[in-house]
Design goal:
Layout (H helix, E strand, L loop, with lengths): L11 E4 L2 E4 L10 H5 L2 E3 L2 E4 L2 E2 L2 H14 L8 H15 L4 E9 L13 E8 L7 H6 L1 E5 L21 H12 L4 E5 L5 E4 L3 E6 L2 E5 L8 H12 L3 E5 L11 E6 L3 E8 L2 E2 L4 H14 L7
Parallel strand pairs: 8-9, 8-15, 12-13
Antiparallel strand pairs: 1-2, 1-7, 3-6, 4-5, 4-6, 6-7, 9-10, 11-12, 11-14, 14-15, 15-16
Helix pairs in contact: 2-3
């Protein structure tokens, strides 16, 4: 992403209850999270100075940590307040918010029972996740080589840093081939999600999306399902096999960074950017835009 390196910026980061200079927000090289992926995070957006679904994200952050066998030493309300504080200090109205919680450096080894749990929150400007021109005509997705893991092998409902390792590999491979992102299958070969977004398809006036039981049930995903049903669109959550994509008309992905992004192509399968997708793009932007007080 264009701009200065993320360790060399002006501003402040909320770090274990204190505001610290951006460049001084550091951890030791022997931090447990760096070696054993004992970290959880959230990705959130602020629109007009309001953090969309802030409390839902804070609740999920706390739950993600519990699934990794640690407890973040701040309440949901304290995390919400800290995020709003950093956003205010940043001077930004439209921004990306990144809370991160991790095990520290007191013990080095697989076991880390005594390690301190840290929490940091950073805010920065982040425009469209995908190229704006590509986004309007529909992005192109590759088929990922790696699959989402069996839920019996990993805490798949946690937004855990380690679960994104194969996402990075998959996105890099897709980008090298000229695609914007990659679609991942689950461990049984069914359609799952993209590297950082959930996926939806349309057919015969209904919306179809994979059942989110082996990957993250995104907050944006749930928001868009609610918006679709409010429009009277039928939403079907079910198992979807890859060859079914040939029969779908529209496709879009959802996520905090991606928002609602149309998809024109997944490997050999082609889709149109149709009215259902456009309607939900508009409805989502309406939902995230702060409402002015009537006066």
């Amino acid at each position: 992403m264009a701009g200065p390196a993320f360790d060399d910026r002006d501003g402040v980061i909320w770090f274990d209850g204190h505001m610290v200079d951006w460049r001084e927000a550091k951890v030791h090289v022997l931090t447990h999270a760096m070696h054993y992926a004992s970290a959880v995070f959230e990705g959130e957006r602020a629109y007009g100075g309001d953090i969309f679904k802030s409390t839902a994200h804070s609740e999920r952050l706390k739950q993600s940590a519990r699934l990794l066998d640690f407890d973040i030493p701040y309440s949901v309300a304290e995390i919400d307040a800290a995020k709003q504080m950093v956003l205010a200090r940043s001077g930004l109205k439209d921004a990306y918010i990144r809370p991160l919680a991790w095990r520290g450096s007191e013990m080095m080894g697989v076991s880390a029972q005594a390690n301190k749990i840290h929490l940091a929150i950073a805010v920065w400007e982040w425009p469209s996740y995908f190229n704006p021109a590509e986004r309007l005509k529909g992005i192109r997705l590759d088929m990922a080589r790696y699959r989402r893991p069996d839920p019996a092998t990993a805490p798949c409902t946690s937004k855990a840093a380690g679960l994104y390792m194969i996402c990075t590999i998959s996105k890099h491979e897709a980008e090298r081939k000229g695609y914007a992102d990659a679609l991942m299958l689950d461990w049984q070969g069914r359609v799952a999600e993209c590297t950082g977004a959930n996926v939806f398809f349309t057919k015969d006036g209904a919306i179809h999306t994979p059942t989110a039981d082996c990957f993250l049930d995104g907050i944006t995903r749930k928001t868009v399902i609610d918006l679709a049903r409010a429009r009277g669109f039928e939403v079907i959550e079910r198992r979807i096999m890859p060859d079914e994509m040939e029969g779908f008309v529209e496709c879009f992905i959802t996520g905090t960074a991606a928002e609602v992004t149309p998809v024109a192509e997944i490997g050999p399968y082609k889709f149109t950017v149709g009215n259902m997708t456009k309607t939900l793009m508009e409805d989502y932007m309406e939902a995230v835009t702060p409402k002015k007080n009537a006066a």
